[in-house]
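lol so apparently i was supposed to do this last week
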Amino acid sequence: MPVVLLILIAVVLVFGIGVLVLNRRRAGTAQPAVTAERREVPAPPPKPSLGKPSTTVPAPSTDEPVAPIEADEEISAEELDAAFEESLADFEAEAALAEIEEFEAETATEPEVLERPRFRDRVAKARATFSGAFGGVRGRAGITAESWDELEEALLRADVGLRVTNGLLEPLRARVKSKEITDPDALLTALQGEMKARLADSDRSLRLEDRAGAGPNVWLFVGVNGVGKTTTIGKVAAQQRAEGRRVLLAAGDTFRAAAAEQLQTWAERSGAEFVRGSEGGDPSSVIFDGVQAAAARHCDLVLGDTAGRLQNKSNLMEELRKVRRVADREPGRVTEVLLVIDATTGQNGLVQAKEFGEVTEVTGVVLTKLDGSAKGGIVFAIETELGIPVKLVGLGETIGDLVAFDPDEFVDALFGE
Ligand SMILES: Nc1nc2c(ncn2[C@@H]2O[C@H](COP(=O)(O)OP(=O)(O)OP(=O)(O)O)[C@@H](O)[C@H]2O)c(=O)[nH]1
Ligand SMILES: [Mg+2]
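anyway here it is w/ magnesium ion bound
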């Protein structure tokens, strides 16, 4: 009798497995039918915005013990088919859930905390320009003609400019000649000191007059196309808001379609007020409206965007002169005109600075994209040759990636410290 029972169990098992294999084959060949059924799997919760899906689908595990088939249990082909489809549905649901979780992890927006980025972490490329030369200088037993060549080349490649490079190296040559400096390490330390000293005396503070009852301060942002004016305004707005000031952004770039929308997005992100005009309208009237609105709403500061322009287009430069004049009318006071320069454009930035400075009385430079550039040396050229202080530095594209320019930290970062 037990032998008969065993045979019976074996027959049922073989039959069951046969049906299972048959079904799998059917599923493989009859693709459209399976896809159709797949669509019937309850749809996963919608992707964005979703917190965690409220229901979790039990995860079928391939390691889970399969329930033993009882010998006397009648298992039809349909039941086996249904069981297989059910576990397929579970598997599909789990895959969908995993996909949602992966999507959420990828798209989770960073909270907009203004965490100050460090020069050291962002100026890797600028540092690389110097590190090869410094390595070469250190690698020699003494200070040779090659050491000087290497230093000079590195400074020029970093866009320090010929005049400033000579200005930095000449006093060092004299100190080496007089035997005050005798070894390579001491030479590099002395160069580091010279570079810091060059940038030491500038007043880099942003002017904001807080006279009671007075109208809003106006900071204008000027520069050539695509240097980062609008982005910088967004970053500055966030910083000023974080310091508790009421800020209004005025969309003085009426030239480019979507420029106002871009600024509006920054206004929303930073919690600033916003004023715009019509596309193609007079930028000075937008700035005027902005100042009026800011005065009415008791704002401390108006940040005025302007359209990018080439410094050699005299009509556009004239337009900028007018924007400045209008912004400075009561109740407004222009307390900063910030020339935004893209650090990757190198020495060309110097030419821009000259022209813009003449037209709008630039009070400071914002050097953007220092994170992606090997041209950090332009800082020295701008300050030494033009006497315009670099006040802010852009170290990335996000709202927190703007820092007050700290020359010591910058020079140390170039030296890999
Ligand atoms: N890596 C990096 N990118 C920056 C920085 N500042 C701005 N950008 C990018 O530069 C590009 C141009 O920025 P915008 O702010 O539109 O420049 P703009 O000067 O207003 O341009 P126009 O209005 O067309 O003249 C954008 O892709 C910015 O994200 C920075 O400090 N680092
Ligand atoms: Mg812009």
